[in-house]
C-alpha cells in the first residue's frame, strides 16, 4: 500500500499493489488511486491506516 498526493508519487503508484490518494491530491493522482482518503489537514494518512487496521479498506 502506498499513499500519495503529488505528481511525483505516480511512479510509486505504478508499482504498488494498492494505491491511496489524499483528498487534496492532484487530480491525476486521484484518477490512479484505488481509494481516496480525506485531506492532509484531516489526517488522511492516519484515517487510511486506521481503516486498513480495521479491515474496512477493500483490497
Automatic annotation (TrEMBL):
Top-rank lineage group of the source organism: Bacteria
Database matches in Pfam families: Hydrolase_3 (PF08282)
Entry annotated with the keyword Thylakoid: no
GO cellular component, one term: cytosol
GO molecular function: magnesium ion binding; phosphatase activity
The UniProt record lists the keyword Hydrolase: yes
Keywords: Hydrolase
Descriptive protein name: Haloacid dehalogenase-like hydrolase family protein
Source organism (scientific name): Anoxybacteroides amylolyticum
Amino acid at each position: 500500500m502506498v499513499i500519495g498526493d503529488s505528481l511525483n508519487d505516480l511512479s510509486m503508484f505504478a508499482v504498488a499493489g494498492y494505491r491511496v490518494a489524499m483528498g487534496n491530491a492532484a487530480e491525476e493522482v486521484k484518477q490512479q488511486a484505488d481509494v481516496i482518503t480525506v485531506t492532509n489537514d484531516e489526517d488522511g494518512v492516519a484515517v487510511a491506516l486506521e481503516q486498513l487496521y480495521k479491515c474496512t479498506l477493500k483490497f
